[in-house]
Design brief:
This is CoA transferase. This protein is α/β, with parallel strands linked by helices. The longest helix has 23 residues.
Length: 421
């Protein structure tokens, strides 16, 4: 690891993965999300991009980052969300020179991550077998829509399709009989995020196995968006496997807890969850509805689940008599779990977000300041206190190729058709 580099690492970097180098050949979201986690944890993440074009995610906008003159740059907010703490190197994998440079970088790396279509990198000599032959210690992770095996392995996968296929949409939204009812996707690229998160965890586990067992060899990791999303169905999948009942859509409600829902107040809505019978009794008292706690229809959670509609109506009739602010203050005094339904603007303006340092600001190479949502991982002895802006395409090509491959500026200019930064 260099004494100091533009990606924020140094010999004094105390982050837990400082000293680990990741060769990142991922695009769009699932892979970049996973490698950003590794970068936040201190790994030196070298992002390989196509010269003159870069990651397709750069063009997924608007909005685009504004520079110091308030003019839009070429950096989309989508790209910025998953590419901080990385260095960008522009190499064309279709050329012998590009392939050779990537293999030489892989020789000096601990991790190789890619999310190309299954089998595509083999024709460039950049598949696991080829890379492991020159670096047996490499941890090589492939992220794909459906995995490296099975009848769908050759298919591409996008988040909305994976959400649909894995049952997410079947349990999200209002019941068919209600106005606006029907399957609904989650408003995040959930399947991509789950695959990237599982990839980051698996990579760290494989590094630990490599460095604590005899032989010190790496291994191959096969991460599928389909697998990751099915695993993340968690209690909903367990509900079906245990009972044989297909989980239904409950809108903002919960299938096994009542009350747990959004409730209308005089001027808006709040969410209230009473997770046990004691909390439910306290809720009834706070709402001046103490008699409800002794009603046979509501005396335990199991019967409240059965009678959820009548209970919802009874609670909401009372809640409509006062404002959101009134009820949130009342319920907080009673130590009950409730919260407003915020927009993102509201959420990021919450005093808790400020106290936790959720938003960080760093200068971007194209000019202007890029706001970033900080990592949620808070480590006391090895804090994640380095944040560098997502790179422009090829921003670090000369730096990385000189540092790791000993190439001169002239060599780089003569051998690679890289993008301007």
């Amino acid at each position: 690891m260099p004494a100091s580099t533009e990606n924020g690492q140094s010999q004094t970097d105390q982050r837990p993965l400082a000293g680990i180098r990741v060769l990142d050949m991922t695009r769009v979201f699932s892979g970049p999300w996973g490698t950003q986690i590794l970068g936040d944890l201190g790994a030196d993440v070298i992002k390989i991009e196509q010269p003159g074009r870069g990651d397709d995610q750069r063009r997924l906008g608007p909005p685009f980052l504004a520079d110091d003159r308030d003019q839009p740059t070429a950096e989309s907010s989508y790209y910025l969300s998953v590419n901080r703490n990385k260095r960008s190197v522009a190499l064309d994998i279709k050329t012998p020179e590009g392939q050779d440079a990537i293999r030489r970088l892989a020789e000096q790396s601990d991790v190789f991550v890619e999310n190309f279509k299954v089998g595509n990198l083999a024709k460039y000599g950049l598949d696991y077998a080829s890379i492991a032959a020159i670096n047996p210690r490499i941890v090589y992770c492939s992220i794909s829509g459906f995995g490296q095996t099975g009848p769908r392995s050759g298919q591409m996968g996008y988040d909305t399709v994976i959400q649909a296929m894995c049952g997410v949409m079947s349990v999200t939204g209002r019941p068919d009989a209600e106005p606006g009812g029907g399957p609904l996707k989650v408003g995040l690229v959930l399947s991509d995020m789950m695959a990237g998160t599982y990839a980051a965890m698996a990579i760290q586990a494989a590094l630990y196995a490599r460095d604590t067992r005899d032989g010190g060899t790496g291994q191959y990791i096969d991460i599928s968006m389909f697998d990751a999303q099915l695993a993340a169905m968690s209690h909903q999948a367990s509900h079906y496997l245990v009972s044989g009942e297909v989980p239904a859509r409950f809108g903002n409600g919960a299938p096994s807890v009542s009350p747990s829902n959004a409730f209308a107040c005089a001027d808006g809505r709040i969410v209230i969850v009473a997770g046990n019978d004691i909390q439910f009794r306290r809720l009834c008292e706070a709402l001046d509805l103490a008699a409800l706690a002794d009603d046979e229809r509501y005396r335990s959670n199991s019967v409240r689940v059965i009678n959820r509609v009548a209970l919802q109506d009874a609670l909401e009739a009372r809640l409509r008599t006062q404002t959101v602010a009134y009820w949130l203050e009342t319920l907080e005094r009673a130590s009950l779990v409730a919260g407003p339904i915020n927009t993102l603007a509201d959420a990021l303006a919450d005093p808790q977000a400020s106290a936790r340092g959720i938003v960080r600001h760093v200068r971007h190479a194209s000019g202007g300041i890029v706001p970033l949502v900080a990592s949620p991982m808070r480590l006391s002895a090895t804090p994640l206190d380095h944040y560098t802006a997502p790179p422009t395409c090829g921003q670090h090509t000369e730096e990385v190729l000189a540092e790791l491959l000993g190439m001169s500026a002239e060599d780089i200019q003569n051998n690679f058709n890289r993008s301007s930064t």
